[in-house]
Amino acid sequence: MKVPFRSLSDMFTHAFSSYFDRPMITSFGTVYTYGQINALVTSFSSFLLNELKMKKGDRIALVMPNVQQMPVLLVGALRAGVTIVNVNPQYTSREMHYQLLDAGVTAIVILENFADRLSEIIEYTMVKNVVITRLGDMMSPIKGFALNLVNRLFNSTGRGVRFHGYYSFRQAIRLGAKSPVEPEPVDPDDIAFLQYTGGTTGIPKGAELSHYNLLTNIEQALLEYGSILEKGEEKIISALPLYHVFALTINFLLISRIGGHGILVVDPRKIHRLVKIIRDFKPTILTGVNTLYNALTYDRDFSKLDFSCLKLVVGGGSSIQKSVAERWQELTGTFILEGYGMTECSPLVCVGPIDQKCYTGNIGKPTAYTKIRIVDDGGADITEVDKPGELWIKGPQVSRGYWYREHDNEQSFTDGWFHSGDIGVWKEDGFIRLVDRKKDMILVSGFNVYPNEIEEVVSTHEKVVEAAAIGVRDKGSGERVKVFAVRSDPSLTEEELIRYCYQYLAHYKVPKYVEFVDSLPKSNVGKILRAKLRERENNGTANGQ
To answer: Is 27 left (phi over 0), alpha (psi -120 to 50) or beta?
Structure first.
């Protein structure tokens, strides 16, 4: 597939030039133009190359929510040819340590709020340089000071944490501006992102997404949505975090490609504030997961908004429930366009037609230049309608593989075909419907949660013999984690075990339900049978809820 740019850096250079005076992002009420962001990007890129002596292909971690520094850091690193490793700011120090070490990260930029977690594990990583930024670092002195003061008053974590030789964000920009440098050209096959995912095995792995992978996925999205999008005029609300591949590609890369204006939302869980932003900003595009759309439809003030500007609503991360889609359409007069993607595919794979008018439960058809096979357990193609099999995906947006994971690559990639681990069926006219997940991954509000990790943490409790984790249905988040645990000490309570998990797991991974059992179902070789636990749960024989 031909693309108009050699790299993402070239794409942004074109966007900065074409839309120089137009607004690029709004954050905390401050608007930044493409030209303003470009100046900061140039300085940050020069800082990485001159001051930190980073080379093309070196890895830099970004531990950032949706704040105004994020676009500067993303594009600055891409321009320097440095590979970006996005780290979820909700991660505990244990989770952060694993990802930094696995990716071989040598530099990191982290929001001050989360720096305490880094301080606990940095000596056990390869990180040599740390940049700490604060919420108000890109604002006017008065506004920035006020925001930083309020943040420190209400967020004690990270306060006063220091590292040997660390830089502040403002210092990095000043140093880069003193000695601007022209980076060496970035090649299409260079790795732009190591985007971490559990894939189909549950062990977090870095999917190698090249500049070409992402550029093609942007153009594929344009082929699907471009007929209703106007360059330099679109406005999108980024309630999903840009460290998530869905928002990264659609809300940032695609929108920047067409000169759009995005508003960054730090905490979309504050629904009343989000509704106010939607009211004031009047977006033309919205993206979200099922839980977000569900919460909005139940908000009283949301139903009073004017939706006449809204032309495209996209759902991703997890399936959109029929009840949510129908309530949304009734309230807004717009339809949630559901698609399907995988981290390993940059992520867009399938999308429903933009003229679709009602809920179908399908994920649409393969996007342009994308091939999909549905295969049986023997790898033979299934062509019959409604006969389930595993989705295999091939296209220019598909990753070359996982970072230093030879065995996983052999299991997940065959002659350019990616084995998704998802079970689907063909429907009429080439549409596809997902019916199940081949493995045991749990989806909590669009985030992947892997049972192996939960079980490992629970089993380290001194009063637990063994444990198994499954996903159970939840109206608020789609699924929540439930743990079945065998106790060695009957004094262990559900509350005690959940408190223990909060020390080692991001909050969305922490079990909501715990059921203590005498034993766990196992195969004849001793493997815990999670499917039996799910079956028991669905039949109502479990009492954990």
So the answer is: beta
